[in-house]
Amino acid sequence: MATDDENKDLTPDRLEVVESVINLLKLQRKYDVMEGLGSGTYGDVLKMFDPESETTFAAKIVTHKMITEAESLLWPTLDHPNIVPLTEFIDLSLIKAAVYIMPIQATSLRAKLIEREFRLQVDALDQVKKWLLQTLCGLEYLHSRDLVHLDVKEDNVLISQSSTAKLCDFTCLNKATKPIRSAKVGSPFMYKPPEAFYLEGTVEGKPCDLWAFGIMTIEILADFFLANNLPQIEHNWLMDVHPTLHEILQLLGKDMDIVGI
Fold it and tell me: Which residues bind ATP (predicted)?
């Protein structure tokens, strides 16, 4: 059984499923839980230890209803230094859950950005620029395979023990060969391009990724995170920022048509 400390970060509604998965993995594979790494809409991530190989790894636990076809089928095919690889997919049909096994990483980009010791380093800005470039390389790899991430943000960029940035969390992974329903874009609303703001429409996936990357880059380099600094941000975004951006982009589109771009 996991201890209370190990469970403190798990979402209450999924605690029973997570406990069942932990018990089954401990019984069948002798895995031990070390700590909770985080919880999201789709699953809970734990740091686990395999005594047989004496290795630690990250395990994302999801219920069957939260399994996405792209994540389970396409993620295993990805092979790039700036993409967190999927080591193993474990389907636990008995308890209607599944586990994604992946290498453990040192930290996340978000955690690094708020770390006081890192911020005081003289080369911190150069390091951040390198991580942003590596993140973009990971995106470029996905796009070259006609795949899109659709949830680019600081939390979904991990930093390895060798200080390499890697894209993670492929819950929203999708094919870029056809229009995507706006509701499938997992990015926070302030990271969504104007055309993705209305859930009933469709969008092109690659521009959504690049827009989110651009907003993330601006936030990082300006040291100004929208969600943390703007009061009533959702209301402001809907009533002011989004309509203004949409109008500007519409005008830019017309100008490009005029000059033949």
Answer: 60
Q: Are strands 165-167 and 157-159 parallel, antiparallel or unpaired?
A: antiparallel
Q: What's the rounded Cα separation, in Å, for the pair 239 and 254?
A: 23
Q: Which residues of the chain carry a pLDDT beneath 50? A: 1-9, 11, 255-261
- Whether the full predicted model's pTM is greater than 0.85, yes or no, is no
Please give the C-alpha separations between residue 44 and each of 7, 25, 95, 165, 234, in angstroms, as whole numbers: 10, 15, 16, 21, 26
CB-neighbour burial class of residue 241 (10 A; exposed 0-12, middle 13-18, buried 19+)? middle
**Pairwise CA distance, residues 168 & 187, whole Å:** 13
Pairing assessment for the beta strands 157-159 and 107-108 based on DSSP bridges: antiparallel
CB-based contact 44:97 (threshold 8 Å)? no
- Residues 113, 116: Cα–Cα separation, whole Å: 8
Task: Give all strands (DSSP E) within the chain, no chain letters.
Answer: 32-39, 44-50, 55-63, 88-92, 97-103, 107-108, 147-148, 157-159, 165-167, 174-175, 180-181, 202-203
Catalytic residue among 4, 123, 126, 151: 151
Identify which of 71, 98, 97 has the alpha carbon closest to the alpha carbon of residue 84: 71
- Residue 222 neighbours by CB distance under 10 Å: 8
Tokens coding 46: 């734990």
47 is in an annotated binding site: no
The residues, any chain, with a CB within 8 Å of residue 129's CB and separated by 6 or more, are none
Query: Is-catalytic flag, 91?
Result: no
Total residues belonging to the chain? 261
